Amino acid sequence: MGPLVLNTRPDTDSADLLAALDERGFRHLSAPMLNIAFPAPVQPLDMTVYQAVIFTSANGVRAFVKLTDDRSLPAYCVGDATARTCRAFGFGDVHSANGDIHDLAELIRKMVDPRRGSLFHPAARKTAGDLGQMLLADSYQIDRQTVYEARESSTLPQHVLEALRNHHIDAILFFSPRTA
Fold first, then answer.
1. Alpha carbon distance 59, 69 (integer Å)
2. The domain spanning residue 103 has which CATH number?
3. Given a cut of 90, is residue 126 above it in pLDDT?
4. How many domains is the chain partitioned into structurally?
5. Could you give the CA distance from residue 14 to residue 86 in angstroms, rounded to a whole number?
């Protein structure tokens, strides 16, 4: 019997992780520490005013596709998982920074001409960094709109609490500073 790992990622982001744990012989429990909420759109998006879309999470992609059917713009993604989510939802021109927000800013600087127009950034209410501020000095115009909220969980499932109390969990996986 392999080590027992506690996964704290939201269920929507856990499938690949849990499959990888299974392949490597780990047992796992899940207790999402963030719950993703997608508020109802206030108004339809007019994507014709943008030259590209920036995604800093797969949840940003999931929220975006609820707001518009437009998949024609290039998508610049923070990492490969976000890029895969874009492709799964029908984006054809997808670029991955394969890193963090700083890598994404660098990718945009290399590939996007700020004179061609604004970039749309569908994001969470609380973000790990300010991409717009990072790119402001380079004359990029970023239209960041809150399209989802990651709400912190205040409780753990009873079976997870029991596993913790009995010291059965060998490792806990955290993917956000807000859940650590």
1. 16
2. 3.40.50.10090
3. no
4. 2
5. 16
